[in-house]
Write a structure and sequence with these properties.
This protein has 16 helices and eleven strands. It is α/β, with parallel strands linked by helices. Strand 1 and strand 2 form a beta hairpin.
Length: about 375
Amino acid sequence: MANISVRTVRFYDKQNILKPSYVSPSGSRFYTDQDFARLQQILLLKYLGFSLDDIKEMTIDDTDFHFMLNSLKMQQKLIRDRIEQLQMVEKAIEDTTQEISTQQSINWSRMLNLIHLTNMEKSLKSQYQNSSNISARIRLHSLYSKNKQGWFPWLFEECHIKDNMKILEIGCGSGSLWAENKDKLPITVSITLSDISEGMLRDAKREIGSLDNRFSFHSFDCHEIPYPDSSFDLVIANHVLFYCDIPKVCREVQRVLKPGGAFLCSAYGSAHMEEISNLVQEFDSRIILSGEKLYEKFGKENGKTLLSPYFSSISWQLYEDYLEVDTPEPLIDYILSCHGNQNQYLLDRYKEFRSFVAKKTKTSFHITKEAGVFLCKRP
């Protein structure tokens, strides 16, 4: 069915990336439709150039339709990126060949650029894994959050957008805030989406559509915003500031805001998702899901103090929500997507860990959510 050899199937079993659902006493392996779907995913990732070690980290035993749908969307984005990359390489080769033919000499700077283009694949792999991780985290919230309004519709309401506003979002990611709320936007607004990652901006353009003239896209580092003073009525930083030099970004935001303009920035509190860290620590005390506690850098508890030198009328709005998880796989996906050392200790003990999480979620596993936004004004 999959056009691969029995030897390959046995090898994937040995590498712990495709285990049979049942092995008979005589040693025969039996595979289900779900196993076959997983095999298709493995083969596609191999075709895209990923190693088996990459695939082992990127795919775990969860093969329900939510996972497959998200995974295929991510793979589609990666394929589009690779098409764009190959088109750029083709153009660079064409230009270099033409120059050598006409000039009878080699432009080594152009050749070096060609090497950089062909090395883009590594960054595309990194982007895929990052996108997959983001998808796993969003999925847990979308499946089990008790507040059915959703984070992005709520965040949009907190922006209080009106006709003729000029808006800048820094660190826009895939543009979900706008893709989910496009129909609610006034026709006369002007929105600039920015991110330091060109890949994220490509995703945002695809999500929102490049034909909507209310939107423009600009890649830059938010520590140096390339716009004149007093350019915007509203600046948004959704889950961004804790990755930044906060005073530097705040000075830039204050500069580009019009007098009386608003700055909306989200943050977490110290209790946010704490039950998940406690869970993995109970399983193995060596596991640390994140090397740094983001709320200590910029959070509910210290955000007002950090913002007050630059802004006035600072208020905190909590998004009231929590999770009740009753199946293990989405929670395990979330755990494996974190930035810590968990894969080092969990991947080789996956079945044991799944059994542990299944017991914890059997009667519903409660997870605290403590996220919200600071809304402040330029004096």
